[in-house]
Amino acid sequence: MSPSREQPALPGRRALTCAFLMGGMFSSQAHAITAVTDIDYLGAGIATPSAPHSLYESDDGRLRLNGGLTLYGFGAVTDNVNFGSGSSIDGGAPTGTSPDWMEAAGQPALTAEWDILGGGTWFTGVQGSYALTRGSAYGDAAGATPGHPEHARLDRAYLGWRSGDLWADTLGEDAITLSAGRQKFEFGDGFLVGDGFTDTGKYAGYYIGPSEGFKNSAVASIESHGWHGDLFHLEADQYVSGGPDNETSTNGANVDYTWGDRAKVGAAYLRVYDSDIAGRDGMDVYNLRAKGKPFAAVPDFSLGGQIVREKNSDEGIDDNGWYLQATYDFSDVPWTPQIAYRHAEFGEDYDTLFYDFAGGWGNWFMGEIVGEYMLFNANLDVDMLRFSVAPRGDLEIGAIGYRFRYHDTEAAGASHSDFASEFNLYADWSITERLSLSGIYAIADPQQGAEERFGGNDDTAQLFELYATYTF
Hints:
The protein is mostly beta strands. 3% of the residues lie in helices and 50% in strands. It has an 18-stranded antiparallel barrel.
């Protein structure tokens, strides 16, 4: 990373619950292994909090009040963190060589809707977030949450309007959505935009990453005849130890077009007009993406990719991040196996901005050891091979292999490009409609590039994690 570019704050992970609730991974009724090459993997726009229980409904049905509560639990045991080094990458916060820790979080939510006669629907919602980290004094394997922090905050509080039947004959029902406040907004499967808050430092919950809302946001969306478009203003916070949070403000536009069940293409532009992070302030960001089934005769094969270009003349930044993934589903084979290969490259000055954990292992934190705690998609080339099966309708099991290399060896201050190889073995189990459990074992072997980065330490790193969610 060049001296002119500040290191972004360590990112938090999007809670896995969104995948369970939205059907992104599986449901207790029917299992369908999904991949980011699926055209309906993750929809763009605002994402409202989970509030499945009806608390009140007026006699005419026009006014509705719902509530919900989601609980998260996470625990990790490690061995030879950072390949046996006593501190995180680039000599950062101390971690210890084998920290064990746990995290917990709770998110109560209330939502309300009011149908206006002949005028659409007003909607609003609030969601609180409380998280704590316990165990190791360092907090986690990246040293991002030391000192056993706990914190409560208002993550979402918004007001919006949907058009309902106003233009149903031309644009379609609920074609227009307007909203403002603290809310979660995403597009492009979370590769660039999806998480507006970093749960690090005093905010706790580094791995769970429960808080995701952009503050002071405003979004105007249209959904009509295969088209989806967004105009948005977003403000994000990143924790800074010993000082006020870094704030980043951006305006932008996003558009998607879905061609039946065959393809989806999209583009976006962002202008970061104000940021406390020098590399971001004044940055222009361009995004192109496409995915789908390129061959009608081979419906089990899907292909997808994205490219992001970031340009900031004042800081001398002109860099790219991109990936290409191929997926094959053995739909006629028992347990419906799926195999996927991805190649991703991120330039020396690439900034992940507001990237998200988008409902599937490896998206977009690539590697439970390297991708979560060492290298965060900058100056990095990654090859990923993933295999998964669904032996039952409520269970998915998979294995993922990674190869990590520096994109620019000289910029990394190394003489060898190979950084590490990693293997992840995971299981996702939907025990009931409300309770879900995930377990993952990871092992990573350092290569010469990592040994140089960590002062000659070359121990094999291991990690075991359990993650549970319960929704009321």
